[in-house]
């Protein structure tokens, strides 16, 4: 099948995948209780944003999701030039988000990842002529591998000569001080936290209670990943402490109601320590996204995509 830009806006599969990305972000922020994070009940460790801020941000980013897919689907050059186009469009999305939220960074990391992953999905659709869902685990693996190809030179190019820069982003500072590459490293390594930790867990789960599945998945991520948000706010020692604390919660395998009580208390503790596992939250939204694409999770209207 030969794809054309003119036909993309009416293409059902494109719209369905973009809707899954939007739903994943809405699902993640609505999930509660999330330690240190914004949800409908608590703002966690955040004083500058709330649940409504996230809703506004997601609505603002949503129109760009189809654009990311379309860029991959119609691209004729190499993966490096595709990434440059995705990054340019992603920057436009980021600016729209900041304008809508009065310069509050709600989804910078998530927007970057969705730009890369949705672009990779579009490229994969073009190369492999995928016209329907659900994806299987092998197709997801191929898509994640493509993200590594798209971002192969990203760390080298973005972090070149950082010591000479007078103004650095949080991500740049983490790399310079601790050698931690954050979401750039995840992308360049084909999202190992997704491929090796989160997705295997989600594929083995029973979805009769999806909120429970995803809250347990969040705890698992917090116990395993390098979370740039926690590192920025609390440093290495606090990040390691959070890993130890959440590992205990994960390994305890608490009954559902006890887990809710434990996470409510832990939310209060992280809030007092001004810690927010935003990196884990972003990865969770990506996991929810792929859970939909693989047919593990239904969309709000109750139909599997």
TrEMBL record:
Q: Provide a GO biological process annotation.
A: prosthetic group biosynthetic process
What does the record give as EC number? 2.4.2.52
Q: Which EC class heads this enzyme's classification?
A: transferase
Keywords in alphabetical order: ATP-binding, Glycosyltransferase, Nucleotide-binding, Transferase
Reaction(s) this enzyme catalyzes, per UniProt: 3'-dephospho-CoA + ATP = 2'-(5''-triphospho-alpha-D-ribosyl)-3'-dephospho-CoA + adenine
Keyword Glycosyltransferase in annotation? yes
Q: Which GO terms describe its molecular function?
A: ATP binding; glycosyltransferase activity; triphosphoribosyl-dephospho-CoA synthase activity
Please name the NCBIfam families in this protein's record.
citrate_citG
Family the entry assigns:
Belongs to the CitG/MdcB family.
- Protein name (Swiss-Prot/TrEMBL): Probable 2-(5''-triphosphoribosyl)-3'-dephosphocoenzyme-A synthase
Q: From what organism does this protein derive?
A: Enterococcus mundtii
What gene name does this entry carry? citG
């Amino acid at each position: 099948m030969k794809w054309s830009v003119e036909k993309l806006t009416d293409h059902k599969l494109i719209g369905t995948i973009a809707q899954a990305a939007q739903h994943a972000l809405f699902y993640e922020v609505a999930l509660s209780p999330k330690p240190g994070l914004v949800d409908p009940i608590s703002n966690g460790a955040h004083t500058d944003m709330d649940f409504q801020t996230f809703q506004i941000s997601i609505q603002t980013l949503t129109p760009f999701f189809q654009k990311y897919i379309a860029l991959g689907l119609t691209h004729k050059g190499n993966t490096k030039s595709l990434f440059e186009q995705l990054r340019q469009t992603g920057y436009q999305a980021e600016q729209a988000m900041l304008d809508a939220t009065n310069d509050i960074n709600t989804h910078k990391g998530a927007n970057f990842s969705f730009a890369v992953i949705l672009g990779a999905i579009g490229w994969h659709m073009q190369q492999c002529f995928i016209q329907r869902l659900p994806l299987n685990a092998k197709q997801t693996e191929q898509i994640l591998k493509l993200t590594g190809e798209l971002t192969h030179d990203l760390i080298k190019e973005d972090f070149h000569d950082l010591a000479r820069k007078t103004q650095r982003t949080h991500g740049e500072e983490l790399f310079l001080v601790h050698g931690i590459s954050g979401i750039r490293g995840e992308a360049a390594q084909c999202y190992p936290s997704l491929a090796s930790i989160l997705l295997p867990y989600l594929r083995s789960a029973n979805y009769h209670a999806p909120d429970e599945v995803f809250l347990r998945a969040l705890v698992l991520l917090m116990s395993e990943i390098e979370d740039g948000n926690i590192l920025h706010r609390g440093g290495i020692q606090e990040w390691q402490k959070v890993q130890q604390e959440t590992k205990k919660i994960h390994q305890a395998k608490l009954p559902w109601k006890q887990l809710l009580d434990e996470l409510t208390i832990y939310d209060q503790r992280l809030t007092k320590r001004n810690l927010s596992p935003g990196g884990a939250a972003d990865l969770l939204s990506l996991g929810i996204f792929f859970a939909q694409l693989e047919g593990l999770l239904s969309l709000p209207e109750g139909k599997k995509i």
